[in-house]
Amino acid sequence: MAPARVAHHLVLLAVVSGCAARGERPLPDAGAGLSQAAVHHEVQLTLLPDRERVLVEDTVTLSPELRARLGDTIVFSLHAGLAPVRVGAGAPLVPARAAATRAAGDESGEDEGDVRLPLESFAVALGPGERSLTLRYGGRIFHPVESRGEEYARSVSDSPGIVSKEGAVLSGATHWLPELSDGFITFALEARVPAGWDVVSQGARTRHERGPGGTVTGWRSAEPQREAFVVAGSFVERSRQGGRPLVQTFLRSDDPALADAYLAAGEQYLEMYERLLGPYPYPKLAVVENFWETGFGMPSFTLLGPKIVRFPFILHSSYPHEILHNWWGNGVFVDAKRGNWCEGLTAYLADHLVEEQRGRGAEHRRTSLQRYADYVAENRDIAVRTFRERHSSLTQAVGYDKVLMIFHMLRQRMGDERFVRALRRFYEENRFRAASFDDVSRAMSAAAGEDLGPWLAQWIDRPGAPRIRLESVEVHGRERFHELELTLAQTQDGAPYDLEVPVVVSLPSAQQAVKRTVHLAARRQQFTLELDEAPARVDIDPEYDVFRRLDPTELPPALSGAFGASRRVIVLPSRAPAELRSAYAALAESWRSAGTEIVSDADLADLPAGKSVWLLGWENRLRNVVADGLKPFGGTLSADELRVGTTVLSRRRHAIVVAVRSPADAAQVVALVGAERAAALPGLARKLPHYGKYGLLGFEGDEPSNVAKETWPVLASSMTAVLGHAAEVPPRGALPARRPLAELPPPPAAAARPKG
Description:
By secondary structure, this protein is of the alpha+beta class.
């Protein structure tokens, strides 16, 4: 997945929010648009990879408004060690106050774990009416690629700026251009690199000359930007101009099939989103292969690592997410001081929409609600308005999952037609401006024909979530007329929320269920539904249309419950061989955080209440707890193998991971990790937090590679009531299939081969 990176991180590897990205540079008020960039840069850049150096000549032009605001003396900051001088007539540069060492990607320097770059500040006097000056500077920029991780292990390697023999990446985090303002910039770049190399930046390419003496490439961004990106290396370029805009790939080796797959998928998603939202805001869409593993989305291009770009699922998961960020985040910017709406909206119109197109929208929403329930303790919750960027599982659950659900509830309230009209209006009115939740509210209210501000405020400004309980269900009547009386309660602390709650009633004689929506706005309300016959079953919000804190009975046991608990116990196997015992201890230490205890199975007689439990090792004395927990799902666990349905995982060949409900506390999860090879455990330690929604996993090899995964079903939900005297729970009646908000158009004709 700010002078510090506007890059939007792929959800696969995201460390931080793509829309606010690594610390938020103050943005102009909403209203600073396309023609009002504060600074324009005309840049001549030479990269010297063998020497890890840059040479830059930059003619900086201030807008009249910025010139008037700054006065006759301007101050700018720059990466330390570049020794800038002023070219031509005019007052020379003088050192200004010492620039504080700044966290790469964070103007405030408050982002924990960021590399901190030394900066230097300079002052220069401008003559009367003078708005331009030319600077020349150069020096070494080499910040090694380092891993950044976090509690939920969505780790990624990154560098605030690097020029090396393998390639080069410069961004706002590098501070390679002088920073004079907190406003937008435009730029024209002419870059010179060695023969065989090429350069990609945002905007449109204006020059491209390759020869034995080197490559000269020009890029121009007429669109206002928060920073200028440069990515350079040895690339094989392919492109397709199926329409507007140009779709390109820049791969580090010639791979026509891979390039063609990205070109085709890019055209499909561009067409879909243009139909849904309006014109794509940039002249190109490019996929660029990096020389280390990254998943970043910059304006008009995506930077993917050599393994990530080849994962087949990226094409229809993370790739559309990053394409959409060119509308949300890089087309309409985020005024993060007033709340980051962008990541949740992008997740809703990309990740959720893709699953909706596959008929799995309800499952995706349940996963979002489960993440919130598992990772956001009620005493740790934050208001959406305070979310800036993702840096933990908690901020992921609030800024992505909760906001995704807010937009889903808006859609349910407004209907698809008015919801889409609001999205198009929001995009049209705020393109290349900084927008806030207030702007979202205005666009939605205008399309809905009602003031949605108070309704939105309960979700945006108030931390927490409603808890809904089905308190009672009664049926009155006989023969052809029946009344279903049900009582719903909100049990969370604080005031009740204003909710629209779906109620689904299954009838004995009808294949289709009856669906009603009730308005729940009090602490406790009774509702009466008229029916033609006595119902067999009632389900409250079975398709997860309401953002709420799910009851534990609605949550299948999953790894997210074990990872997300505020208190957890990791139990080591005392009877494991020494090498395995040592590897398990290392895994436990790598997962240690506040609220974590690490104990031996020899010292733990009973499972604790109020804590999740990790049991490590096939040899663990408490393994039978998991064996018992598997029985309701039809699974068996012996000393040598795990069986669930047709899945058989043997101790000799596989590493297993299983999550079940704790017999000591139904709100908690017990998870078992078992492996015969110590070499597999470091990989499991890294990978398992990526598999939070699963209850069963199997892996092979030392890598290890996933070979089996399964989510458990919900066995008995407190939000379901069975009526009558049925011996078994009757099936829920069918509900009409939902149409996705947008359909993916067919792939381009095979005859339209890419240019290479």
